[in-house]
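Structure tokens please, single chain.
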Amino acid sequence: MPIEAGAKIPSATVTKITVDGPEEITTDDLFGGRKVVVFGVPGAFTPTCSLNHLPGFIENRDTILAKSVDEIVCVSVNDHHVMKAWAETTGALGKITFVADWDAAFSKAIGMEVDISAGKLGLRSLRYSMIVDDGTVTAVNLEEKRGEATNSGAAAMLEQLA
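Here you go.
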């Protein structure tokens, strides 16, 4: 069952992509003491993620951060090499924080894992976005239709942050 508003983000360790290389970080450190917009995608370089979901957050980065948001985090069940390449290719490295949830530990902990082996993708993340304030989820947006980034997109997030 997906995490709901009011719940605390569970402890997990993920890999944060930095300009200097991968950095192990706990969710306590990632989300504690700050307001973070986080969005999860099924996979780096996949069509909907690359063409619809990520671009909205890149384009609206400054507007989102101006709403008292400290950081925008993109999470995907990919390894850190893939996440770094995706961040670099899209020009978002250093603008949006990319997090490799390589073993789906974080996605499982928040109930956002999905097995899409039928599509040859294996265990991945559902498409979602959240607002996390000092480790507590204040809003969750789960995408309802496959191939869309409407409920979980940057435009919907901006409405919630208004």
